[in-house]
Amino acid sequence: MDKLKIQADWFEKIFPEGILIPSSIMLSGPGGSGKPLVGNFIVAEWLKRGGSVVFMSLQYPDHRFIKSSLNAITKLNLHDYIKNCVFIELDATIDGMEEIEDRHFKANVVKPDIWDAALVQACKNVPDEGPGILIFASALNLLLFSPTYGNEILERIKSTIQDETHRSFLFSVSTTAKAKEIAELEAIVDNLMMVWMEKETMQLFIQAIRMKGVAFISEHIRIPISKENLLSLKAIADDSRKRVIPIVSKI
Question: Which residues does 147 contact at the CB level (< 8 Å), separation at least 6?
Answer without folding.
Answer: 249, 251
